[in-house]
């Protein structure tokens, strides 16, 4: 595995389009060293936990709980019919107390609060701990837990992940390694996104032989409180929290307009309608997708008068809304 390209000495004011639209991951050492939560975490786990409690206002969060036997790896059960953890709704202060009770436990239960909107559960936190993303409309989330592992998965948005407490190890795979990651079900997932079935700590190369090639293209970074990592859209990332108490703040944003649907919808619809066609028909549809989607350019519809191009014209909000209505009408027949 290769180290992720690293930049040092940056402050949030130095974030620019070159960084925030990079197609390669970037490790930004010390980017959020100035955050008060980071300073508290460097003092102690207890100080970091107390700092979070300052902003808590009685809202509940969803926590994932797994037994000590899962070793912090949130995953499927044995036959992939369900999962090896259970979600519970709890007060955040109760979760923080539970985490504190296991700081010294060498084999603790796995406790994980994932992807919780900061402004909802910790109002005011971002007044003191935030990053200016140059006008991007980002979703800011917080992740809190003990020593946990999240299998390799991708996210559609670009991602800036900032370690606020503890340490984390990110292992990233470029999108073209999909074929070597042995991805599980698309429509039954631990947290919304499909995941690799390979255990990065103990890969079974007899069952997953192509994963060896994926490792040759992997990039890895070990991060401490104050470090940030830019993860480009669609890069697969395996995430490990390495301390008894860990906090991550991340920002997600898309480079496409809000009115565009997620491409996952198109993927699932194509699986339903195209994948099982006879080979000759599937090849014909591959050519249509190539022509109208993946290699489209100005020549694709140049022979049609602009006013008559309809769905072949550049997409805007009104055109997207009309197309969505048309598709819904067809699917509800």
TrEMBL record:
Coiled-coil region list: none
Pfam families assigned to the protein according to its UniProt record, in alphabetical order: Cupin_8
The name this protein goes by in its record: Cupin-like domain-containing protein
Domain JmjC: 111-268
SUPFAM superfamilies for this protein: Clavaminate synthase-like
InterPro entries, per the entry: Cupin_8 (IPR041667), JmjC_dom (IPR003347)
């Amino acid at each position: 595995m290769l180290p992720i390209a690293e930049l040092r000495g940056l402050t949030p004011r130095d974030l620019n389009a070159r960084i925030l639209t990079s197609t390669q991951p970037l490790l930004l050492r010390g980017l959020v060293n100035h955050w008060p939560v980071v300073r508290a975490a460097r003092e102690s786990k207890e100080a970091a936990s107390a700092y979070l409690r300052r902003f808590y206002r009685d809202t509940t969060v969803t926590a994932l709980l797994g037994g000590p036997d899962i070793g912090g790896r949130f995953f499927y059960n044995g036959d992939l019919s369900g999962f090896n953890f259970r979600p519970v709704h709890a007060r955040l202060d109760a979760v923080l107390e539970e985490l504190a009770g296991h700081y010294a436990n060498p084999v603790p239960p796995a406790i994980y609060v994932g992807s919780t909107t900061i402004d909802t559960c910790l109002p005011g936190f971002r007044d003191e701990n935030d990053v200016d993303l140059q006008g991007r409309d980002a979703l800011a989330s917080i992740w809190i837990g003990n020593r946990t592992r999240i299998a390799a998965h991708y996210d559609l948005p670009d991602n800036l992940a900032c370690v606020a407490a503890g340490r984390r190890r990110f292992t990233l795979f470029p999108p073209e390694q999909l074929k070597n990651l042995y991805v599980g079900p698309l429509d039954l997932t631990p947290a919304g996104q499909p995941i690799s079935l390979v255990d990065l700590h103990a890969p079974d190369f007899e069952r997953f032989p192509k994963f060896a090639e994926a490792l040759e293209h992997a990039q890895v970074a070990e991060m401490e409180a104050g470090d940030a990592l830019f993860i480009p859209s669609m890069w697969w990332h395996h995430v490990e929290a390495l301390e008894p108490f860990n906090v991550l703040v991340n920002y997600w944003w898309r480079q496409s307009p809000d009115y565009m649907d997620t491409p996952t919808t198109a993927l699932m619809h194509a699986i339903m309608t195209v994948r099982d066609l006879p080979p000759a028909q599937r090849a014909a549809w591959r050519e249509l997708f190539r022509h109208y989607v993946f290699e489209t350019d100005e020549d694709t519809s140049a022979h049609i008068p602009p006013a008559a191009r309809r769905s072949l014209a550049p997409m805007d909000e009104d055109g997207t809304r009309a197309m969505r209505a048309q598709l819904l009408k067809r699917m509800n027949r």
